[in-house]
Structures are given as C-alpha cells and as structure tokens.
Design goal:
Blueprint lengths: L9 E3 L4 H10 L4 E4 L5 H7 L12 E4 L9 E4 L2 E5 L4 H6 L1 H6 L1 H8 L4 H6 L2 H6 L6 H8 L3 E8 L2 E8 L4 E3 L2 E2 L6 E8 L5 E9 L7 E11 L6 E9 L6 E2 L1 H7 L7 H14 L11 H22 L9
Parallel strand pairs: 1-3, 2-3
Antiparallel strand pairs: 4-5, 5-10, 6-7, 6-10, 8-9, 11-12, 12-13, 13-14
Helix pairs in contact: 5-8, 9-10, 10-11
C-alpha cells in the first residue's frame, strides 16, 4: 500500500490576529488561512500542484482559536459578526433572527448540517463565489468587512464595503498577508425587514441556480418603500446589487402588483445571467429571477409592517 503524502508542510493555530498576520507574512505566498476548510480542502484536493511542480499550499494558518473571531454582538445598534462564526451559529442566533433574517435564511441552506457546523461566514466571503449564499445575505444588509493588515508590529484594521472584496469568480481583492476578521451592518430599525430565498438543483451536488436577498424599509403609511437593497447571485462575475430595481422600488410609488412587475423588469435588464451546464440555462434563470423577486420582496414588505401590498 502506498502512503499518501500530506497536503501541507506546516499547520499553525495562532491565538491572536498579530500572530496570524506574522505567519502569513513570514511563510510566503504558499500560505493560506483556514477556518472550516470546507472549500479550501476541496480546492487543495483538485489543485495540489502549482505550475512550477510544487505544492500549491505549504502552510495553513488556522484562525479558529483567535479571540473575537467567533463572536456575534450588537453595540450602538451595530451588529458585528466574527469571520470565524459558523453558518450553524448564524442560523441559531436569536439576535440575527431578529435583526438579519435574510442572513439567517441564507446560511440555513448552505450544504448540510455537517458543513454548516464548521463552514464559516468569513470563508464564504473570502472564497468569492458569486452564488455564495451567506455573501448574498450580507450584501443585502449593506455589510462592511474588517480587513486586517500587519503594519510593522501592529495590526491595522480597516472597514471596507463588502463589494470591494470581489475581483471575479473565486478571486478576492485581499493582498498577500491580509485577512478578514469580522463583518458589521446596522441593526434592524423601525419598519425594516429582510428576506432570502433560492432555487437549487436537488440532484447530486446541491448547486444554487439562483439566490436572492432583499432588505426594505417601509414608509409610515405602510404602502410605499422608503429604501431597498436587492442582492442576487449568480448574476455576473461577482455578487451583484440590483441598483436599478432598488431605485425604482424606493421611488415613491405604492408597492403594488404593477410596481412589483416593473421592479422585476428593471432587475432583469441589469443582471448578467449566463447558461451553465452545472446549474441552468440563462432563460430558466431569468424566469426564476421573477419568481424569487416576488417571493422575497413581498415577504420582506410584510415583515416590515407593510399593508395592502401584492401577494406572493
């Protein structure tokens, strides 16, 4: 029997951000951050040799032992979620169920229970897939990410818009030696609510055909939408905000069946839906875009206390 070779040479478990960043800087370009590893380990299994014939990953830096990376808290009406928080913890969090329904609902459909128990929200974002469910939920909440960099012997922390992290399918904008430590977004205010839904292939690997999250703030009269955010994926090379549809929704018209159809048309004109042999045709996705928008917008509107709106 031939013994299999290890997939990495070093595995580190730092207990501080400073230690983690120092490892990322000192160990070189073949160093990767790992938390749940549900994406990374699979990628290493299919791409374990680089162009030079060497191992694609030499060193893994496990961030799950760093204080604060696994916390969820609210402070001054701002929700902060550590990048090491698992999908299962997000799903079960009473605080997030109250303030971030679309994120809870998006994390609830990631993989199976075993995957959700170890897969982290930071890994979901850093993997930079345009169909990532947790990412779509965060995007509708207008989340920011805290990116950490080693500056001399200090940790430099910088909050930046979530969308700024994405360069293309599977490619983020993090520089070598940087890592994501947390996410933050405003807590739920009066007459505000969110919702998420998706359609997926049930056969074999459960690939999402289309996922959609929406956040709405309803006017005091309960008939109009004051503000809206709609996140869709995959609808282009990076996670996507349907800004034209958002502007139409918040344009002062009553939220009725006519406005809902206009919103669907605006979103359909802005998205970039391609045919994928692993997921679905662009035509089918366009039909499902209308289905999901109706479901999610009506659900968010009702949760926010809207009245006399269209039915799903």
């Amino acid at each position: 029997m031939t013994a299999s070779l290890p997939r990495w040479k070093e595995y580190h478990t730092p207990t501080s951000l400073l230690d983690a960043l120092e490892l990322l800087r000192s160990r070189g370009p073949k160093t990767r951050v790992i938390a749940g590893g549900t994406d990374l380990i699979l990628d290493m299994g299919t791409d374990d040799v680089d162009a030079d014939g060497g191992e694609a990953v030499d060193v893994l830096v496990d961030v799950t032992h760093i204080e604060g990376m696994d916390t969820i808290h609210i402070d001054d009406e701002q929700i902060t979620i550590g990048a090491g928080v698992t999908h299962a913890r997000i799903e079960k969090s009473g605080l997030l169920q109250e303030h971030a329904a679309c994120l809870v609902e998006s994390c609830r459909v990631v993989g199976g229970p075993q995957v959700r128990n170890v897969a982290t929200i930071g890994g979901n974002v850093a993997h930079a897939l345009p169909a990532a469910d947790g990412t779509i939920g965060l995007l509708a909440l207008d989340a920011q990410a805290e990116v950490c960099t080693l500056a001399g012997a200090e940790v430099e922390r910088r909050w930046q818009p979530l969308l700024s992290l994405f360069a293309g399918p599977g490619r983020n904008t993090l520089e070598p030696g940087q890592l994501i430590s947390a996410f933050r977004f405003a807590g739920r205010g009066e007459r505000e609510a969110s919702a998420f839904d998706r359609i997926m292939r049930p056969q074999g690997v459960a690939l999402p055909i289309l996922g959609l999250a929406a956040w709405l703030r309803v006017a005091a009269d309960g008939r109009q939408v004051d503000a809206a955010r709609i996140a869709i994926g995959p609808a282009g090379p990076i996670p996507f905000r349907a800004t034209d549809a958002e502007a139409l929704l918040a344009g002062g018209q009553p939220f009725d069946a006519a406005l809902l159809e206009e919103t669907i048309a605006a979103a359909g004109a802005q998205v970039r839906l391609r045919t994928s042999r692993h997921r679905a045709s662009s035509d089918y996705r366009r039909e499902m875009l209308a289905v999901l928008l109706r479901r999610v917008l009506v659900r968010a509107f009702q949760r926010a206390g809207g009245s006399d709106g269209p039915s799903q």
